[in-house]
Amino acid sequence: MTHHMHRPKIALVGAGQIGGNLALMAAQKELGDVTLLDIPDLEGIAKGKALDIAQMSPIQGFDAGFKGTTNWDDIKGADVVIVTAGKPRKPGMSRDELLDVNVKIMKDVAVNVKKFCPEAFVVVVSNPLDAMVYALYKITGFNHQQVVGMAGVLDSGRFRYFVAEKLGVSIEDVTAFVLGGHGDDMVPVVQYCAVGGIPLNQMMKKEEIDKIVDRTRKAGGEIVALYKTGSAYYSPAAASITMVESYLRDKKRVLPAAAWLRGEYGLKDMFVGVPVVIGAGGVEKVIDAELSKDDRDALMKSASRVKELCVEVDKRL
To answer: Is 4 a catalytic residue?
Structure first.
């Protein structure tokens, strides 16, 4: 594999539906060489997806190396690690019921990531998101700039799609701003949402906006109910790749993500969704925007819920 040494190495921990789509999208953007890692029971899935996508590469014309493995040693020195390992939600299951099961998984992941990829930029996708990224951060003891949770890019994407669909305009010209924990109390900040730069509340009645806010909050559950066998995977994969691309190509994109807060928005010692700048330094900056009283209250409510989850995580570490 020496001829690939100059390419970034991307390790995908979890070769499930999100993992497979991450591998595909990373390769199509030629972000680097991809290793899919999963537990021994799923060795065939990890190897099969790697081989399947590798055989697609000559057809679509992207250059990337692929490997499926159950061996942590194979991701040694990765530049980026994206963690999707964990059980997905079943219909009617809350994100919090997942906590027990997924903290155990995250413990194992964090110990190995620390051992094999100490320099990596780590993006956590596993649910309950804010608690899982917190667990990994606590166990690894990594620099807070190298650990981030993917939720806001996805939630904003959902919000933007619903707005564009309702107004009959291009998704490209709708911007959204979603704060808070990745759960039913996330906070789409309407005053910072715009259509072609025009504030959303000039384009749409309050009732219509409220409906979209509500649908955005429940969007994950809407898909869980339709799939019946798991949760969303195309959109979370794409959202994660957006973040990773900004890191690897030093794009300095302003993206909502679960970042470690040290006083911004009056919050600290927790990961909560806020707008950040992602570049070669990882999470280079948290943007501390002014909020209305209602939005600030909503953010505090969401953050207190995240804090409760973090206390539960601490008990289990």
So the answer is: no
